[in-house]
Design a protein that fits this description.
This protein is α/β, with parallel strands linked by helices. It is built from nine helices and 14 strands. The longest helix is centred in the middle third of the chain and has 25 residues. The two termini are 35 Å apart.
Length: 283
C-alpha cells in the first residue's frame, strides 16, 4: 500500500470519525477474539485508535473458558443450565478470582503494552453493577440479574484518560457476589450511559438466515422484526439471549446495536469506520 493509498483510507474513515467523536461505545469482548493472541492484540489496538480519535470506549468482558480452566485445575465440575453456568458459593469465588483478577488485569496490561491507558474495574467496585439473584424456572445459585448501574467510576476513568475495562461480577446490598452474563451487563451499561452503540463480539458473522451458511448474513434488523424471526427459527438457541440484549439496549435509548465476527482482524474498526461494516446491525 502506497502512502497515497493510506491517505485515502483515512479520508474515507473521516466521516465516521466525525460521527462518533465524543460519543460512547460499549464493546462486549468475548469468543475467539479473547483467546487468540493475534486477535487480542488486534482488538486492543482498535480500542486505542478509537480512544485517540475522541470516542469514549468501555470494554466489558466475561471469561467463561478461563473460569472453566481454573475450575478444572481445582478439581471442580463446571455445570451449565440453559447456557448459564450454575454458580454455587465456591464457584462464585472462582468466578470473582478469575474475572476480576487475572482476566481483567491481563487485558489492562495488554492495552498498556499496546500504548494505551486502561484501568480495570469489576461490577463490585463502587457499586458499578448492583445485582440480585436470577429468577427463573431453575435455581442457578449465585447467577445475578442487574438491578442498577452506577457509572461514576466509568466517567472518572474517561476524565483521567483511561479506557475502563469491566469484568461482569456484581453484588447486592448485603455484599453477596453474583456471576452476571457479559452480554446482559454490557447492554445495561450501554443503556445507563446513553451509548451511541453497543457491539457484541462473537464467533459467527452475525445473524444468519441459514445458520449453516455464512453467506446468508442479515445485515440490518429492526428490533420490531425480532419476535417474527424467533418464531421462524432464524433466531434460535444461544442467539436468542444475545439478540434480546441488543433489543433491550436499543429500546432503552442506545442508537445502534451490532453483533460482529470477532474472528476477523480489526473487526471493530471495520464495523464502525467503513461503508460496508461486517456484522448485523439492530436499530
Amino acid at each position: 500500500m502506497t502512502n497515497q493509498d493510506k491517505a485515502q483510507v483515512l479520508i474515507k474513515a473521516l466521516p465516521y470519525i466525525q460521527k462518533y467523536s465524543g460519543k460512547i461505545v460499549v464493546i462486549k469482548y468475548g469468543g475467539n477474539a479473547m483467546t487468540n493472541e493475534h486477535l487480542k492484540n488486534s482488538v486492543m489496538n482498535d480500542l486505542i485508535l478509537l480512544t485517540l480519535v475522541g470516542i469514549k470506549v468501555v470494554l466489558v468482558h466475561g471469561g467463561g473458558p478461563e473460569i472453566s480452566e481454573m475450575m478444572n485445575r481445582l478439581g471442580m465440575e463446571s455445570k451449565f443450565i440453559g447456557g448459564l453456568r450454575y454458580t454455587d458459593a465456591e464457584t462464585a469465588k472462582v468466578v470473582q478470582m478469575v474475572l476480576a483478577g487475572k482476566t481483567n488485569k491481563d487485558l489492562v496490561a495488554l492495552i498498556q503494552r499496546s500504548g494505551g491507558r486502561a484501568i480495570g474495574l469489576c461490577g463490585i467496585d463502587g457499586g458499578t453493577i448492583m445485582a440480585k439473584k436470577h429468577e427463573g424456572e431453575q435455581d442457578l445459585g449465585f447467577v445475578g440479574d442487574v438491578t442498577d448501574v452506577d457509572p461514576a467510576l466509568i466517567l472518572d476513568a474517561w476524565k483521567n484518560g483511561y479506557i475502563p475495562v469491566i469484568s461482569t461480577v456484581g453484588c447486592d446490598s448485603d455484599g453477596n457476589v453474583y456471576n452476571i452474563n457479559a452480554d446482559t451487563a454490557a447492554a445495561e451499561i450501554a443503556a445507563k450511559l446513553g451509548a451511541e452503540n453497543i457491539i457484541l463480539m462473537t464467533d459467527i458473522r452475525g445473524l444468519l438466515r441459514d445458520k449453516n451458511d455464512e453467506s446468508t448474513l442479515i445485515p440490518v434488523v429492526n428490533v420490531s422484526e425480532v419476535p417474527y424471526l424467533i418464531r421462524q427459527g432464524i433466531i434460535s438457541g444461544g442467539m436468542i439471549p444475545k439478540i434480546e440484549c441488543c433489543v433491550e439496549a436499543v429500546r432503552r435509548g442506545v442508537n445502534r446495536a451490532f453483533i460482529i465476527d470477532g474472528r476477523i482482524d480489526h473487526s471493530i474498526l471495520i464495523e464502525m469506520l467503513s461503508d460496508e461494516g461486517i456484522g448485523t446491525m439492530f436499530l
